[in-house]
Amino acid sequence: MKLTALRPIIYTHHLEDTIRFYIDLLGFVLGGKNDEWGWASLYKDQVSIMLARPNEHEAFEKPVFTGSFYFNTDEVDELWELLKDKVKVCYSIENFKWQMREFGIYDNNGYLLQFGQDIATLK
Known about the structure:
This protein is of the alpha/beta class. The chain folds into two domains: 1-55, 2,3-Dihydroxybiphenyl 1,2-Dioxygenase, domain 1, CATH 3.10.180; 66-123, 2,3-Dihydroxybiphenyl 1,2-Dioxygenase, domain 1. It is built from two helices and eight strands; from the N terminus they run βαββββαβββ. A four-stranded mixed beta sheet has the order 1-4-3-2, with helices on one face. The mean pLDDT is 93.
């Protein structure tokens, strides 16, 4: 058996705003959308995510994900400069002892998004 991809589903009460956040700020592309289901699929390069309005089978008040979404990138400094004044910042860009240069922001729902680049690959 081989796993071929992981596509997280991000629950949101604000589907249109969340689509705009990921497209306008992070450069994702809308791959599919179903208004009846309250669902959308987005992608950028090798990353895919789905967005969905919560359904009646699960209680959902607000984001309660206890982790973060960590994105590897090849231009972390460029991305930081693009985003830092347009989003709520969790922590500013810095080099960490685990040899990653990274920063963290919150999306429009409050989910933590982290972006990092291996220090060895910095130009």
